[in-house]
Amino acid sequence: MLVRGNRIEAIGSAREVRVPSDAEVVDGRGKFVVPGFIDSHVHGSGQEEIDPPLLLANGVTTARDMNGQPLLYQWRDRVAAGTLFGPRYVVASSIIDGSPTPLADGVPTIEVTNAAEGRAAVRRAVAEGADFIKVYVRLKPDAYHAIADECRRLGVTFGGHTPDAIPLLEASAAGQRSFEHVYTNWFDTSSAENEIRRRLAKISIKRGEYNKWFTETHPLEVLAARTFDPARARKVFRRLLADGSHQVPTLVQHRVFDLPDSITLHDDRLRYLPAATRDSWRTGLEQVFLAGRTEQDVAEHRELYRARVRWISAAHRAGVPVLAGTDTGTPYIYPGFSLHDELQNLVEAGLSPMEALQAATSAPARFLGLHDVGVVRQGAIADLAVLDADPLTDIRNTSRVHAVVARGELITADRREHMLSHIEAAAAGGTLATRLAGCACTPVLQHA
Ligand SMILES: [Zn+2]
Ligand SMILES: [Zn+2]
Questions:
Q1: Measured in angstroms, how far is the CA atom of residue 21 from the centroid of ligand 2?
Q2: pTM of the prediction?
Q3: What is the DSSP-derived secondary structure letter of residue 285?
Q4: How far is the CA of 255 from the centre of ligand 1 (A)?
Q5: What are the extents of the domains in the chain?
Q6: Which residues in 83-92 are b (16+ Cβ under 10 Å) and which e?
Q7: What pLDDT, in 10s, does the model give residues 174-229?
Q8: Ligand 2 centre and the CA of 335: distance in Å?
Q9: Which ligand is nearest to the CA of 159?
Q10: CA angle 151, 155, 157 (to 5 degrees)
């Protein structure tokens, strides 16, 4: 393969492709080339010495950030201008939610209470540089539908969580094209949907009471899992497919909260994160994820995780497009590394290794409207991961990254090692603070 500038110029054997004498040559014997990976759900930490290079070192050449803020728009623009070496970023608006939002004070959120505010929020977000609109759980129907309509008028897509007050199919019909996680999006496939919606409507929270919202939706999730109705599901999935709506299940994030026992506190990858991040993760794990769980809670969460996987499996079998996303910003989700874990989760959910690869390459590229990205072919953008072993025989091989090419720029195995040591040194420096809060997709430590 010959790369010139940021494009793939030719593909073929060493005999077929004329290699210019000044070309830098990478010996690819025994290696496997795949398109650079796309993580469809990240939250930038604001630490530019950590996230962008860690994503690249793991072969992630595009990231869809789910909570836009000025610094993240700058990252996107600097990467595009070549002044920051990182993945291509596609960045959401700040979270648009109803009022009061359960999100904590530090999470940039635009609260809207009616249609006019919903429209204004969309217009302002687009003017400020959002690539798409992110919707959240407490939006009321009038505001939600006004947001949907304004997005249509402006030609921007919107995605996010499924609001409590909006059934999945209503949201899909309104134009929401991505549904993140498997929380409130599986009520439509329950034979107890009416009861669930009645109880959901009664949930009342004050601003910042994320954990209360989480605790009160938990029994409804258990009920949805136990009353999954295959006949309803067939109809729901058929409609999602027809609408062109995507699921971004972030199973790797669900594992953290549903199966906290599976987290290893001595994970090798922790060395790439600053002490402050490691400490807050550990506190979150001990004080929120594990603390006070009864045996019944533990069993219910195990059951929920299995049910989420089954739900995604059924959606996938019905043809609903599934995208690989991780939710970095959540404790124990590692920028870059965790995408490879998610690919394993997707294979466990019934995707073939090829389909899992597509969920992290060609499918999100198409979804994001990125032309010539997510594919290996002549003329395409040279975003590539070079792997030491075949990912189609074992999906875990995607994590065996040998070299990376990002928009034509080569990261050799040596340079990659150097980048990783540099990240480790920056993390150990102790001067980095997490500057941005994510979308808190799992319960959070409530600060007094
Ligand atoms: Zn998120
Ligand atoms: Zn989320």
A1: 49
A2: 0.97
A3: I
A4: 14
A5: 33-375+391-428
A6: ebbbbbbbbb
A7: 999 999 999 989 999 999 999 999 999 999 999 999 989 999 999 999 999 999 99
A8: 16
A9: 2
A10: 60
